[in-house]
Amino acid sequence: MIEHATLWLLAVCSYGLGDLVTTAAGLRYAELEEGSAFVRRLLGEPPTPGGLVRFGAFKVVLFAAFYGGYLVLDGYPVRILIPAVITGIGIVAVGNNLRAIQRIR
Asked: pTM (2 decimals)?
């Protein structure tokens, strides 16, 4: 069985850092646009370095909320789903970003 701490590390690496880094890399190409309207607003039109900081800060707030929910569910086996789902979403987001970048290169 995978440890909870390992899943949290994977969640931070995939959804937290991986998505942020691959989004920033994709924004270097004029042909690409962020798919989420909310994230586009955070990034700015056109995207700015300050927008990337806002996007990163938003991710920190999300992780704090998710971790708070995880702590509230202490004693419930289902709580492992929180970092597991975040990890899954992160892997999909990074994959989508890399695929989009690869298509235009």
From this structure: 0.92
